[in-house]
Amino acid sequence: MEEHIMDYEALGLKAGLEIHQQLNTKEKLFSHSPSFVRDTAEHNGEVSRYLRVATSEMGDVDRAAKEELMNNRLFTYYTYDTTGLVEIDEEPPAPLNPDALSIVLTLAKMFNMTPLPEICTMRKMVVDGSATSGFQRTSLVALNGSILNSCRIETVAVEEEACQRVEGTIFSVDRLGIPLIEITTSPCMKTPDEVHDVAQYIGMTLRSTGRVKRGLGTIRQDVNISIRDGARVEIKGVQELDLIAEVVRREVQRQLSLLAIRDELTARNALVNGEVYDVTAVFAKTKSQVLKKAKVILGTVLHGFAGLVGMEIQPDRRLGSEMSDYAKKCGVGGLFHTDELPAYGVTEEEVRILKETLGAGREDAVIIVAATEQKCRCAMQMIIRRAKMAFEGIPEETRKMLEGGSTAYMRPLPGADRMYPETDILSVPVSEEYWNSIATPELLTVKAERFVSEYGLDPGMAHQMAFSEKLPLFERAVSEGIRPVFAARTILASLKELSRAGISEDNIPDDSVIAVMKTIEAGNAAKEAVLEILTECAKGMSVSDAVSRVAPAFSREELQDLVHTIVSDRVEFIRSRGKAALGPVMGIVMNEVRGRIDGKVVSEVLDDELGRIL
Amino acid sequence: MTLNNSDPITVKFAGLDMNGIFISRSGENAVVKLSSGYNICVPESLCIPREAALPLEKPATVPLTQDANLPLLSIISTGGTIASTVDYRTGAVSSKFTAEDILRNIPELAKIARYHTLQPFQVLSENMNPAMWQELARTIYDEISKGAKGIIVTHGTDTLLYSAAAISFMLDTPVPVIFVGAQRSADRPSSDNAMNAICSAQTGISELGEVVICMHANESDTTCSLHRATRVRKNHTSRRDAFQSIGREPVGSVAYPEGTVVLANDAIRRDEQTLRLSDNLERHCGLIHYYPGMDPAIFDAYKGYKGLVIAGTGLGHVGTDCIPKIADLVGDGTTVIMTSQCLAGGVCDRVYETGRDLLTAGVIEGGTMLPEIALVKLMWVLGNATRREDIRRLMQTNLKGELAFDLWRNI
Q: Where a domain ends, among B223, B256, B277?
């Protein structure tokens, strides 16, 4: 399926984005704990909990919540000396962090939105273990904005970050409660590249505030995708912007393949009768490691499915993988289907007997699962459910991204049933006066253009500087009178050199970088010495000590004396070479003074001295 | 037109027409639930009623049957929430009291016992009072008389230990009487309500035969502790393991989810006591917490009280200038009991001069009794004895585990 032949508009592609970005606040959204992520090896406590869902008056339990709770699992939570009782749901939450709200309101203004006059906090049920309370707190802040003249921003909300999964049912609560902004666009994008561009623009806007966290995992894009005749599918957690278009392309491919399978099933008069058989005896002497250790093996026949279960629907994914994802909800490791057998130690003979036992013909596929009786029964129900969905086409699902951009089933799309008010938090009024007082920052793209026109930076450097984490340092340097080009070069090039040499730039306070730049601009140290001076500063030396150690101050007078001596010793040579003597003599002088005084000054002084002789 | 809860409306806001339902008012704003599930607050003038959709039909619920072969437990609800449901449309949380509702919420209970449920009254725990303790004691007595093999009392946690202690003194019980609550609200998936309830039911069918409080033993969902009702304190405002036994280990524990109940050697066993109710209480009693610089005139406010418990400092002291006032109270017929703010350890007023002066003034040492427990006991003792010597002897006798040993022999 080559991209150039895909006409996405003709396919009726509609995509929307939901972007989650961590905000860079001092405290968490609903607790006073510091808002940063820890190394899980540093945890100093653990608690373990079950989660359960109360049914509503209507007798409804959110369908996504219900599926997560099929296994009543004990979750373990790692705690830290930087986390408190709110994170382990042992204490009522603190009031909504006003700093986080102000960042979200700033962004709402940048997106031309209307703020809500009063911010109510809701609980969004999340029972996969990633929230200790069993819900995520979330507050809608503003509605109906637009960007790039073409795309509507439906809502922005401020919400709590969830726990990090350490592995399996172990979670870490350090991340829980870090404030996030959630930005939801309308389904305004019609091609994969547009999705990339909108995501990039929103990301740039977020960073323009200077108040969002940076680095891997601090921003996550969820993409909602559908095509005509398809269904809305939400793909969660795309972390790299560069993959986002590929994710969309692959989802379109998957939906087209599933529609093709649907049509083929109808044409074949395929049937799922849902009968499940115990086929443990068939594999009594099997060499397959998986089947050998299983207590029970169950099988079912999907009539008319042969060849379709194993059909690739996107790279490395088949209809069988989809069924397997559903089965895994019951705690089984996966499934085998006859489209892929014999393989995995299952022999051709065993497949023949299996098909014969179940009365499966050439057009049929057989699915088997191996585990405990209870898990097998549960898994079989899920497989049959998913097989039946194949006749409808594409199920509405929440999916997770796999490496490379394909996706796997996570859970059904959640409904409105999962939201109810957070009674422990008072609503927060947003007055018109407050809204009007919010200043919006300059966009980074606008800033980069200004750096070219106003400061004379070349466009590449201007862009790099505007999007760098060191932007505040650059702006401060310029405001303190340092030449912009010199400041940008020092900040971008020197600090990069340092980190290449394994020296963390975090070890050099901004004050020191500014002081070093000022020393050089005043002519008290040479530009050439900047890297060495900063290296010494990174090791803990003060700026003045570093300058005098690396490049002891060398005054113009001292230089004149030195040059006079050197020139006097070489009068013959200079007279014989004339002007051409400048280069060699310059080399001799520079050997003595490199890094201690600017080369330009050396050249001036030397020129004067030679002029005296010649 | 005035909007009512659940009215369908259209909200005109931010250039949008959004469908939602009206929930409530918050100042000048209306709280509206949007179809996305979010609640928003917008000026009520922007909410326009729309044609009501047909009310959703409630799904048919399968009637629950209880297993007649299982032992019978009574669940007495006083207002604490053992089970609740959330109306996701309005956010309203409602407590559930019928056996059927409870079993629907916590189906694990159905495998442990069958249940008879009662709700003699419904109050916030902070509004409980001695008259309600008496009513509760009579209700429990009746249920046991009618054959309940165990009693579970659901109760708000704020004053749970007072009620449990009061029942301990008023009732000799041959079956387990378990007080249970939840520290984290029942409408959150992480609530401790279900586990505490399940552990209570397991205790209800166990070999225990006394009044206990069943709550989380630690911050994890692994074990509940059974605290003797006369040796327990709420030591945290919000943690699941807020209740802790003071001066002794809990009388038992329940493993979760296994349900195994392990009892301490000195836990009172089923049928060890004969059912007996003595439900008199003297309500005119007080509890005062001494602090440095306390104005002695405060004691005048207790003139006419039948009893007063002092939570004194250290071994059981108050400032010397308070002693004459206390002597006056005793002289007027008030029984004054000394306990310690230290909670752990016993009172001893024979070590320092202030203590000896207090004894001379007629103060009765409360030994290791916790101040709150001493208050409840004093109400019971004064409700059942009138002679000074009887009162002193009862207050210094270990009746229900509230004292480490009898003190009156030492007089």
A: B277
> How is residue A139 annotated by DSSP?
E
Between chain A and chain B, the number of residue pairs with CB atoms below 8 A apart is: 145
CB contact under 8 A, B37 and A59: no
**pLDDT in the model for residue A331:** 87
* pLDDT higher than 50, residue A59: no
Question: Within a domain: residue B57?
Answer: no
pLDDT given at position B411: 47
* Domain ranges within chain A, ordered by starting residue: 3-265, 271-390, 444-550, 556-613
The Cα–Cα gap between A85 and A79 comes to: 10
Q: Is B85 at the interface with chain A, CB within 8 A?
A: yes
CA distance B91 to chain A (A): 5
Q: How many domains does chain B have?
A: 3
Among B196, B240, B215, CA closest to A90: B240
Catalytic residues of B: 81, 157-158, 234
Residues 6+ apart with CB under 8 A from B348: B315, B316, B355, B365
Res. A559: pLDDT tops 90:
no
Query: What's the rounded Cα separation, in Å, for the pair A505 and A513?
Result: 10
ipTM: 0.91
A271-390: CATH class: alpha beta
Residue B54 lies in a domain: no
Say if B27 is an interface residue toward chain A (CB within 8 Å).
yes
Give the 3-state secondary structure of residue A101: helix
Model confidence pLDDT, tens digit, residues A214-250: 988 899 999 999 999 888 999 998 888 999 999 999 9
- Residue B25 forms part of a structural domain: yes
Domain covering A556-613 assigned CATH 1.10.10 in the classification: yes
Considering B277, B293, B309, which residue would you say is the last residue of a domain?
B277
Q: Nearest 5°: phi and psi at B112? A: -95, -40
Ranges of chain B whose pLDDT falls below 50 = 411
Query: What's the gap in Å between the CA of A416 and the closest CA on chain B?
Result: 4
pTM (2 d.p.):
0.85
Residue of B34, B35, B39 to mutate when probing chain A, most A C-beta within 10 A = B39
- Please tell me the distance in Å from A251's CA to the nearest CA on chain B: 25
Is residue B267 domain-shared with residue B292, that is, in the same domain?
Answer: no
